[in-house]
Amino acid sequence: MNYAEVAVNSPGAQRQTFCYAVPPNIMVGHAVWLPFGRSLTHGIILQLTEYPSVEKTKEIIGLIDPRPILSTVQVELARWISEHYLSPLFDAAALMMPPGFERRVLTFLTLMPNPSEAIIPSLTPRQKALVNLIFRKGKVELAEVERALGKKEAGTIIGQLVRKKVVARTQELERVRVRSKVVPYIHLAIGADEAQREAECLLVMRRAPKQAELLGLLESGPVPLAEAKRHLGCTSAVVEALRRKGMVTIEQVQVYRDPLAHRNFSPLPAPALTAAQEAVWREIEAALESDFSPLPAATFTSAQERVLREIEVARESEKRPPIFLLHGVTGSGKTEIYLRALGQVISLGKRAIVLVPEIALTPQTIARFASRFPGRVAVLHSKLSVGEQFDEWWRIREGAFDVVIGSRGAIFAPQPDLGLIVIDEEHEWTYKQQEQSPRYHARDVAIRLAELTGSVLILGSATPDVTTYYKSQIGDFRLLELPERIAKGEKMVEVVDLREELKRGNRGIFSRSLYKGMEKALAAGEQVILFLNRRGSATFVQCRHCGYVLRCKRCDVSLTYHSAGEDLVCHQCNHRMAAPNVCPQCGSRRIKFLGIGTQKVEEEVGRAFPSANLLRWDRDVTRGKHSHEEILDKFLSHEADVLIGTQMIAKGLELPLVTLVGVINADVSLYLPDFRAGERTFQILTQVAGRAGRGILAGHVILQSYSPHHYAIVAAAKHDYTSFYEQEISLRRHYENPPFSRLVRLLYTNPNNAFCQREAQRMHRLLKDERDSWGMDVSLIGPSPAFIQRVRGRYRWQIILRGAAPVRLLAEIPTPQGWSVDIDPVSLL
Known about the structure:
By secondary structure, the chain is an alpha/beta fold.
């Protein structure tokens, strides 16, 4: 008998494995069904051993899939994620499983075979009703009973019936949520010549024109049955008649749900490189052609062994592939460097993964890669259907694609023979998963994956993350720079002081300079982009008589007015209500809509330039699967003159007719209580300014601000990353913020605010005592209410840990229920 250490899908499993007896055919990476406590669940085999780690072991029930779901590299990566982010081990492994793989174990109620005749008459009316329901249906899902009676009463009644041996609980796996798509195809069972003769005979002698038409259609090859019926307008009887005669057969054929099937990509030649691109490319090419050994996968029986392994790895760091930071201004040709690197790694017999922020994963971006490598690019992102994700995942695993391009989750794609990882716009905070555990950062996972596979890693950005750039300055990463734009058109950036506009009587949302710029661009037949990183028409609604502000009943935020639906929307929980005509508090009709969002900008542009065609690009108008593509295609084909949007319009778009970019309010995120507020403002302004002047036409950028002398806005206007970095890193050093420390955010949520506060204070005392007993140099900030104190009816309190190694303080403390742990958070709001 062999034994295995298994990551179990159970809330109680946390970061540990459990030992099970396994048959000889089990391999590392296999997904298995197993008993855990009194229930059935699934797990992943992480390690095989000859001897058990505990005295008594249970046996696994069976394999979920005959093939190992995870590779040895993915198993090692899952272990690292679990330890680095303090997340349950199975949750870390689940990141790498195929879409739709996880299946819940459902509990059903069935009647015992021969219940005692004396018991049935003694049952209460409620008990009898449940027994009758089970008798009629044969079995009833526990969840159905709980919905009807409530959990507490259902538990009481079912417990009584189980003890009386009238009802039994059984467990079954839920149906598979997604599987390969199979379509019936109809094809000839006879030769083409014979089919032609039979068709003529049917048409002339037997007067069966539909059968003849179907035979004629099939002469060119098999056709999906539904398509044949639709094309010819024939019924199932026609098909059945030919099948009985032995002329056609129907077979089930697996079809691939291709997310790019609706697009055609023509191969594009590689353009000549500039001198700066050539210098950068030579360094990357040399690294790709070097032979870097992957980090060997290892198994560990203790944390001490893992630490010793990390020390050994550190000593061999010079043998590891380099991590490049490609710092290039917007429009400098970073994407072409990525494409060259992809071509080179493919020529060496290896494959690649390319990560792009979700909002930048536009059809235009995908087209650039798919046109260079037609038929060899897979796409993975959240807008795909589960079926499309399922098919892409399995085809990637089978080696059908040279390149996988996608959002942060694509880093876990089962790409074999990995030799290159590219992360475009590496500074983007969307590479961090924040909503659920594991709260990983795709950049850090990519660094570890590159080590495990011996892959070269390229991090690209016009505005690198301050921590990333700092690492390039101290030698952890290799810095490559593209300091000049390729486009010949000139670009001028103008900062408008909105305080001066107010002094001169201009209370509109457009400064005089921006209005004149729009007027000039539209008259010349050019295009304009207007940017405001805020949705809706009015950011809050207030009664001018009593001062009451309409707020979400479940969240501690004001409601935003959306004129398109004439409703108020909570941007935290999506609660909606009709905009009132009178104040809910005092009954006054003096309701005022204050603040601006993208819908308001659209309305103002429509009033100022009634002949201009407008498009808006924000989350409210991109609910559909192909919404981004449709909006971009319309703007590229000049069906619209002005594009108004949020940060969606700031990423990687090539719009040659755009000569003016206007930032309505550059201060939107500048003064948020987060130490990264200045960095975020600089990054988004620099990125959106890069959309102007991408072609031969000159570009003009107008930044409207009430803080025109803030260092982030001054640096963005000059496109001067160096000056921004020097001021920002000085502030970080002074306040001991990352990269000069690491942060951990502990967040507790509960419907009761007083209880929430008490639990936060209890945790603070526990951490303080633990810190003091070990003499750790870790600062505890808080406990305090979160920036938005209540979301979806739950109050939020947080504690921030800051120090060189704050994770050590938490490593041995089990995370209590209700607490979430965020290692290296990208936001403290």
